[in-house]
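Quick illustration, no need to memorize.
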Amino acid sequence: MKGFHQEVVRVVLLEAKNRCITKVDIARGTVNESLAAPREIFRPAIIHSAFAFVLVHNHPSGNTKHSVADLQLTKRVAAAAQILQINFLDHVIVGRGFYSFQEAGLV
């Protein structure tokens, strides 16, 4: 994903043993922004009966620092995942390296 020239939001769907079921692109944006609502993120998780998922998006600039919008999305997705009882394992930003919200204690 770090080679993309626009932001792409992707969800990686996992079964109960954390093996990948599928990967679904949720949204494509501009060079610095992509809009994804929780309903678009959870639709494929529900359709594929996913046990868990990881949210991934890229920053074409290569900078992996999260934005305020990235943090807000993470919080909304975490709240919705809890209600839907689908395990939200991490939100990862890919650039020159990566940033894990879970490693930072934000998931």
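Residues 8-100 form a domain with the Cytidine Deaminase; domain 2 fold (CATH 3.40.140.10).
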